[in-house]
Amino acid sequence: MTVGGDARVCPHCGDPPGEGVFCAACGRNLAAVDRLPTRAEWDAANVQDDRPLADRCAEATAVFLAAMHTAGDPGTTKTALSGRSGFRRPKQVEGWVVRAVERDDNLPPQRYESGLVLTVEGAFHQLDNEVRGYGTRDFPSYEHTVGPEPVEMPIEARLIAELGAVLAANGLDAGE
């Protein structure tokens, strides 16, 4: 069975888990799993590579930056730094949104997960947003900001898949 890259899959076998608490394909209990990985994340995590995940994440980041710089840095956005003061123009960070902010304000409990930006210089920053526009017809609108200080590179298999997705969204391949 072919599973799309955005489909959620069982973290143990990589197949769609079905409706219940137990995976329909392998039968393992999924009750303790906070969030099922996408098929692309599962594929990236299960590559037969004996190197530590930190090394693979660092290599994927270096390959990503090299490919983007060679192509002229397509797809960059400028995002304001958080913590601006007074009437000054906010400072901005230029880079790629690797992981968008995930939020669900409609159903209790409300869920919010910060995003991730990779600057053209190669630093990771936390991406946040605030709801704006209360009482207007454009409500809700979200104002995105990045943290002023860089954060450590996330050592997660999904980072490798997310970097590959940003490359693909800009018409590039990691091998270029």
Taken in chain order, the helices and strands follow as: HHEEEEEEEH
What's the number of extended β-strand segments? 7
Question: Largest sheet, if any?
Answer: 5 strands, mixed, barrel
Residue fraction in strands? 15-25%
Write down the overall geometry: globular
Distance between the termini: 30 Å
Structural class: alpha+beta
Figure out the total of helices.
3
Q: Strand order within the widest sheet?
A: 1-2-5-6-7
Which spans have pLDDT < 50 for at least 5 consecutive residues? none
Concise synopsis of the structure shown:
With 176 residues, this protein is α+β, with helices and mostly antiparallel strands. The chain contains 3 helices and 7 strands, in the order H-H-E-E-E-E-E-E-E-H. The mean pLDDT is 83.
Overall description:
The model has no long low-confidence stretch (mean pLDDT 83). It is globular and about 60 Å long. Strand 3 and strand 4 form a beta hairpin. It has helices at 39-45, 53-70, 157-169, and strands spanning 77-81, 92-99, 102-104, 111-113, 115-119, 124-132, 141-146. The strands form 2 sheets. It has a 5-stranded mixed β-barrel. Strands 3-4 form a two-stranded antiparallel ribbon. The chain has 176 residues and is α+β, with helices and mostly antiparallel strands.
Write the layout of secondary structure elements.
Blueprint: H1 39-45, H2 53-70, E1 77-81, E2 92-99, E3 102-104, E4 111-113, E5 115-119, E6 124-132, E7 141-146, H3 157-169
Parallel strand pairs: 1-7
Antiparallel strand pairs: 1-2, 2-5, 3-4, 5-6, 6-7
Helix pairs in contact: 1-3, 2-3
